[in-house]
Structures are given as structure tokens and as C-alpha cells.
Write a structure and sequence with these properties.
The complex is a heterodimer. Chain A has 13 helices and seven strands. By secondary structure, chain A is an alpha/beta fold. In chain B, helix 2 runs parallel beside helix 8, helix 4 packs parallel to helix 5 and helix 9 crosses helix 13. Chain B is globular. The complex binds thiamine diphosphate.
Chain lengths: ~400, ~325
């Protein structure tokens, strides 16, 4: 196998440049590996400059807003679902938003992502770094995503599969499916093909910790490691896989330890701290982009509600209430707000504006969110509500490709 | 390495060489094509189908994969999603079960799920079939699993000409194709043929009439086509004229050729080495009963493997599989019905 650097088309200078970058990144990741989970303060004390330290004030405030947007999407969907307006199951991303926002923020438009059931906001948040209203960004539009949720015509998969199972080849979002961990080999193939075509894309895949028990997780990560493919497997360790606690799914306390078996970095991020997620994922991304191969980034987080909305009542029984309270206490929006206050980026009234954090979805109101966030989602919902259902006969279409004829 | 390809009299080519030529020509034609599988590069494949391809096209396009059918098939889906055409080799088709989920849930459904945005040009091919003492895990014909998964095309050539032309067609088809090769035919001298020097394909979805007859239609594919042809010779001695149809392509299926033959013979037997229950023979008979009942003078019949695994030693193996004798006996019974 050619080293990935040899795929860089533009010659010697670039080659040298990449080589140097690779060395820097390797050193940084080694630091990280030895520091392991560590508290945010310990890491701030480190000499190495974290990727988040490169973020401007505007970036940080944008990240804050995006946490709100992810939360608002979830809150609204929970309410719509409760009112009986939506078909299917909602897998809430509540309390896990920092994983999505922190991991997506550092990507380039040419990168690919592969979200799963609990990552609905990722579908429209890809590329948000370049402004939510920018029509040229490569994420899916909120209209497309809402049309899918409502099962309407304007959805990319024509609402043929459950709402969380969308994706877009043109937007470089691998289509989500129900087969847990099943998209990781697909992501590896996408990365391989991108490299063959001279690209430098990194592919982020998202999976719950429970899904790492699948054989295909091993097969895919092993393959990606053998070929040094730039695939970052993000493990959203929210402590529960449906009704089973993590210690019944994984024999080691840290899922990231699995990386050792593949000879790749296994990083651990505080999944409630968007900047820590950003740092760890960016380091893995830079490391992968430089041709060093895949990494696993485990984000420690907590699932606020049941597995799906159908499970909320039962979840109260299999999860002790103290655990739920403790798990929800570190709300990612609150953690981010505090960081911004410490940095002096939020002052005066701004410190206490829009307080959605810590609230149950049912208790949060529009006043808890920035108006532009509310407006953004409302646009999508309105589009979805006004869009017709796909025609019944469509169910027979698209079993086979017919060479592109209409 | 194949003796036949290097033999001086090699105007005629064997089934395996035909497959190799198909891959070679398609790799040359389509720079975005890639082959992957276990031991297919350095070694050239367990049977030699990919021999020489890595030297010619490089390690990036002829990839030795970890022993990981799910990764072989799953990453092929990702490559296809990102603009490539992939040949994914299963070392033996029996092991395809280890990649089953990726095939039936990921690959087969991708076009449908995305309402046509994505199509998956991947051919999963591998050696299949019994009669050589391969025993339980190296003898299966598991095509029915995949015929039952909408979105997959399923084919099985029986001649070198078809092997080459259908593999080329499959690689250009744009849909996922499960391509059954008959390993007992790979190097069989008797079936070698001259192949056209110019580019050609054999379209998927067209059956072939291998022998004309007027009393009974024998419908089959793969290795069993030859059993049917031999049975037809025996039947002729008994004054029964058998027509032999090689369907070649299970999905899509050329029903017309089958029905037209039955219109002539009024009798049909499906011969299939897969186990009987829920095998493809049952599907053919159901369609014949539903759509061509009025053409029949006798109940449609089938000769299949028994519902057992494929045992190892010869007397046991032949006991459970279709044989010439069993086909002849059934044809006589149907003829006298
Ligand atoms: C192969 C497979 N087996 C079982 C399921 C059913 N299932 C869906 S989600 C889930 C739990 C997933 O837990 P985890 O991976 O930790 O992700 P989380 O839902 O906690 O985010 C299960 C068992 C499935 N979708 N796919």
C-alpha cells in the first residue's frame, strides 16, 4: 500500500510539508495519550497548545449558539412527538450535544460524516462553522431534515426509511441505518476511495458504546488501521445501550482502550465539554489527515432520557434516579457558558440570557433559546408541514438502478 | 499459472481464464475499478482468478484484505458510494454469510433507501457449488438467500463465454450483483471454448437454450446444466427428447424463454443443487404454476439436493445431490404421467 502522502498530487514541497505536520501531530497525540482522560484544568496546564486555543471569540460564541440549536431541535421534536404529530421513534440527543458540535466544528466541507440514530442534529449541522444561513455550506438543509422527520416529499430518501436514517452523497453524509456499527466499514471505503482520488477527506463515524461490541466494529477498525485510513470512530459513551449498562457491554472501563489492539490512538474526551471534544477530535482529525491513520475518540457523556421516547417511562425503572440526576447535572450548555464567562466572552446580561440548560425538554420554552435558533428550526418545520406525502406507488420505485434513466 | 492458459493449443480458454480476462479488461477500461478480497494480490487468489492483476494494476487497486468478509463487502459499499466500482471476492461463496448483513441490509437497500441518489456498483463473486468433495463449508449454493433480498442481482454462468461476458456485464451494471462461479468448472477441459477477441458482454437477465427438444423441458443453471445435458443424451436413448435451458441469471429472470419452451414440451423439471426447501427451484415452479399452468400436461417437478448439508465423501455427496440418473428417472416419470 502506498503511503497516503504519496497520494498528494503536488509534489515535493507538499510532501515535505505533510511530513513535518505528521511529526508534530504524532508528538501531540502521544502527549495526549499519556495524559489520557485528565481534567480540563490539567490539560490547560500542558505546554502543548490545544486546537481550541486557536478558536476566535466569534468561533466560541458560534459554538455556544450551535449547542442551543442542537438542544432546541431535540426539545421541539420531543414536544411534537408528545403531541402525536410524528410517526416513529425519537432518539433524543439531549445532554449529548457537545459531542456533535465539538466534533463537527473543526471539519472541512470536503470531509465526510456518518451519524447514527442519536445524532439527528448532525445532519443539518455539518459545515455550520461556515454560518448556518450560508447556502453554499455542505450540510443538509433544515428543510430536508424536517421533511424526513415528518415523512414528507421533500426528504432526501423520500421518507422511505425511518426519520433518523438519512444521509446525502452530495453533502458527504453517509446514510445512517439501523445496523449498529454497520456504517464504519462503509466510512472506511469512502476514505479509501477519497484517497485514491487524491482527496484529503477525513471521515467521522458516530457510534454508541454498546455498538462497539459488534463484530463489524472490529472488522472495520482493523481494516482502517491496516490501510491507515483517515476514519475517526467517535464513541458516544452515554453509559447505557438501551436497557443495558456499559459494564455489561464492555469489559474495560474505557472503550478507548480498544484502540490499543489496533495500534491506533484511543483518546478520551469529556463529552460534556464542547471544547474538550473539539480538542480531542481535532487532534485525531489532524493526525488522520496527515496520513497517520484512524483513531478512536471516546466521549464520556450521559443519556438524559430513555433509549427512545417509547422507553422514557421504563428508563426510570432500570436507571436509579440519583444516577439520572447526576448524569444530567453537567449540562453541556452550562459547561460551555461557564467557559465563555471565564474567558470574558460572555459579560453582563449575556451571562444569563437564554437559560435552556438543566431544564427538562417539557419545561423549556422558546424564551430559553436565541431567537435566530428558534427561527431557523421553524423554517424547517413549516416547510415539512406544507410538504405533501410521497405517492404510495413510489414504494415500488428504486429497487434497482436503471442506468440513470428517469 | 493455469495450465490451460499456457498450453500451446490455447485458442480455447477455460472458465477461470475467462473470468480473469473479464477482470483484467474491466480494470483496464475503468480506472475507477478496484478488486479486493483475501489473498487476491500477492497470491493471485485461492484459485488464481486474480493472478497477475496486482502486478499489473498495483497494490492500491488489487487489495489483499484482512480475513473479514464484512469489511470486504462493507468497505466496497463505501467505495461505491464515493465513485468507484468494486469487485469483492469471497474466497469461497460459503463464507459470504460472514458478510451477509452488509450485503442484505446495506448494499441491497442503498438505492432504495436513498430514493435513487446512490447506486452501488459492486460485484461480490466467489467459487461455489458441490460435486468435488468440498464438504459442508466449501460446497454450498446459497443463492436463494440473496434472491430473497430485493435490490440484488444474482447470476451464475456455466460456460467460459458466459463467465467472461456476464462478469463484464455485472461490473458495468451499476447494481450490486452476487456472482456465483462454479469452482468445479474453473479448469474443466471439456467445456473450454474460444472467446471473442473483441469486447463483448452477455446481458444479465437472458436465459440460454443449451439443447433443443420437444418432450420435456429441463431448467437449470451452473453445474447442473451439464447434468441435464448428459441426462438428455440418456433420455434420447429412451425416445424422450429433452430441451435444456440454462437460466444463467436468477434475478432478473427471463421467464419468457422458460414459458416458450414449456409451450413446446408441456412438461418441466427444474434441476438445482441447492437444498429443496425454499430453494430457487421452488420459486421457478411457483411461477410456472401461476403463469403457465395452462401449458402443462404434467405437474411441474424438481430435482434438488436433499435438505441436508453437503457431505464429504463421494457416495454420500452424490446421494444428496442431483445426478444424471435422478434427472432421467424424474423425466421418465413426468413423460409417462
Ligand atoms: C445489529 C443491531 N442489533 C440490535 C439493534 C437494536 N438497537 C438499536 S439501538 C440499541 C442500543 C444502542 O446502544 P449504543 O450503541 O450504546 O447507542 P445509544 O443508543 O446509547 O446512543 C440497540 C440494541 C440494532 N439496531 N442493530
Amino acid at each position: 500500500m502506498k503511503s497516503p502522502r504519496e497520494f498528494v498530487p503536488s509534489g515535493f514541497l507538499v510532501y515535505l510539508g505533510w511530513g513535518n505536520l505528521a511529526i508534530i501531530v504524532i508528538q501531540k497525540t502521544e502527549n495526549l495519550l499519556s495524559a489520557k482522560s485528565g481534567s480540563a484544568t490539567a490539560e490547560r496546564a500542558e505546554q502543548v497548545k490545544k486546537p481550541s486555543q486557536r478558536l476566535t471569540k466569534e468561533d466560541c460564541l458560534e459554538i455556544f449558539k450551535q449547542l442551543y440549536l442542537a438542544r432546541y431541535f431535540d426539545v421541539r421534536l420531543i414536544k411534537e412527538k408528545k403531541r402525536g404529530r410524528l410517526r416513529g421513534t425519537l432518539y433524543s440527543s439531549h445532554n449529548q450535544e457537545a459531542v456533535l458540535v465539538g466534533s463537527l466544528f473543526g471539519l472541512k466541507p470536503t470531509d465526510w460524516i456518518s451519524p447514527i440514530h442519536r445524532d439527528m442534529p448532525a445532519f443539518f449541522m455539518k459545515d455550520f462553522r461556515f454560518d448556518i444561513d450560508n447556502p453554499d455550506r455542505l450540510g443538509m438543509s433544515i428543510e430536508e431534515v424536517c421533511a424526513q422527520v415528518w415523512g414528507k416529499e421533500g426528504s432526501p430518501g423520500r421518507a422511505r426509511d425511518n426519520w433518523s436514517h438519512i444521509g446525502s452523497k452530495s453533502k458527504r453524509i453517509i446514510h445512517s441505518t439501523s445496523m449498529l456499527a454497520g456504517t464504519i466499514p462503509v466510512a472506511a471505503g469512502v476514505a479509501y476511495a477519497d484517497r485514491m482520488q487524491g482527496g484529503d477527506a477525513v471521515v467521522l463515524t458516530y457510534n454508541g458504546e454498546g455498538s462497539t461490541a459488534q463484530g463489524i466494529f472490529h472488522e472495520a477498525v482493523n481494516y482502517a488501521a491496516v490501510h491507515k485510513l483517515p476514519v475517526i470512530t467517535i464513541v458516544e459513551n452515554n453509559q447505557w445501550a438501551y436497557g443495558t449498562p456499559v459494564d455489561q457491554e464492555c469489559p474495560t472501563p474505557d472503550v478507548a482502550d480498544r484502540a490499543k489492539g489496533y495500534g491506533i490512538p484511543g483518546l478520551i474526551a469529556d463529552g460534556q465539554d464542547v471544547f474538550d471534544v473539539y480538542d480531542k477530535v481535532m487532534e485525531a482529525v489532524e493526525y488522520a489527515r496527515a496520513g497517520n491513520g484512524p483513531a478512536i475518540v471516546e466521549c464520556k457523556t450521559f443519556r438524559a432520557y430513555g433509549h427512545g421516547d417509547h422507553d422514557d417511562d421504563r428508563a426510570m425503572k432500570y436507571r436509579p434516579s440519583e444516577e439520572i440526576e447526576k448524569g444530567r447535572r453537567r449540562d453541556p450548555i452550562a459547561v460551555c457558558r461557564q467557559t465563555l464567562i471565564d474567558l470574558g466572552y460572555l459579560t453582563g446580561d449575556a451571562k444569563t440570557m437564554y437559560m435552556a440548560e438543566g431544564k427538562n425538554a417539557g419545561d423549556a420554552t422558546n424564551d430559553d433559546f436565541p431567537p435566530e435558533v428558534v427561527d431557523f428550526l421553524n423554517k424547517g418545520i413549516e416547510f415539512a408541514m406544507n410538504s405533501p406525502m410521497p405517492a404510495a406507488e413510489e414504494a415500488e420505485k428504486w429497487v434497482f438502478w436503471n442506468g440513470g434513466q428517469a | 499459472m493455469s495450465a490451460t492458459t499456457e498450453a500451446p493449443a490455447a485458442l480455447k480458454k477455460n472458465y477461470l481464464t475467462a473470468l480473469k480476462e473479464a477482470l483484467d479488461e474491466e480494470m483496464a477500461r475503468n480506472k475507477m475499478m478496484l478488486c479486493q478480497g483475501e489473498d487476491i494480490g500477492r497470491l493471485g487468489g485461492a484459485f488464481g482468478v486474480t493472478e497477475g492483476l496486482q502486478a499489473k494494476y498495483g497494490e492500491d487497486r488489487v487489495v489483499d484484505m484482512p480475513i473479514s468478509e464484512a469489511a470486504i463487502v462493507g468497505s466496497a459499499v463505501g467505495m461505491a458510494l464515493n465513485g468507484m466500482t468494486v469487485m469483492a471476492e469471497m474466497q469461497f461463496i460459503d463464507f459470504i454469510s460472514c458478510g451477509f448483513d452488509q450485503i442484505v441490509n446495506m448494499m441491497a437497500t442503498y438505492h432504495y433507501r436513498t430514493a435513487g441518489e446512490v447506486h452501488i456498483p459492486v460485484v461480490v463473486r466467489g467459487p461455489a457449488g458441490a460435486y468435488g468433495g468440498g464438504a459442508l463449508y466449501h460446497s454450498q449454493m446459497n443463492e436463494a438467500w440473496f434472491c430473497n433480498a430485493p435490490g440484488l442481482k444474482v447470476v451464475c454462468p456455466s460456460t467460459p463465454y458466459d463467465a467472461k461476458g456476464m462478469l463484464k456485464a455485472a461490473l458495468r451494471d451499476g447494481n450490486p450483483v452476487i456472482f456465483y462461479e462454479i469452482k468445479e468448472l474453473y479448469r474443466k477441459r471439456e467445456i473450454e471454448e474460444e472467446l471473442p477477441t473483441e469486447d463483448y458482454i452477455v446481458p444479465l437477465g437472458k436465459a440460454a437454450i443449451r439443447r433443443e427438444g420437444k418432450d420435456v423441458t429441463l431448467v437449470s443453471y451452473g453445474q447442473n446444466v451439464y447434468h441435464c445435458l448428459d441426462a438428455a443424451v440418456e433420455l434420447e436413448k429412451l425416445g424422450i427428447s429433452a430441451e435444456v435451458i440454462d437460466i444463467r441469471s436468477l434475478v432478473p429472470l427471463d421467464e419468457d424463454t422458460i414459458f416458450n419452451s414449456i409451450a413446446k414440451t408441456s412438461r418441466v423439471i427444474v434441476v438445482n443443487e441447492a437444498p429443496m426447501t425454499c430453494g430457487f427451484a421452488g420459486e421457478l415452479i411457483a411461477r410456472i404454476s401461476q403463469k403457465a399452468f395452462h401449458l402443462l400436461d404434467a405437474p411441474p417437478s424438481r430435482v434438488t439436493r436433499m435438505d441436508t448439508p453437503v457431505p464429504w465423501v463421494k457416495p454420500l455427496e452424490l446421494h444428496v445431490l442431483p445426478t444424471i440418473d435422478k434427472i432421467v428417472a424424474e423425466a421418465v416419470r413426468i413423460y409417462r404421467f
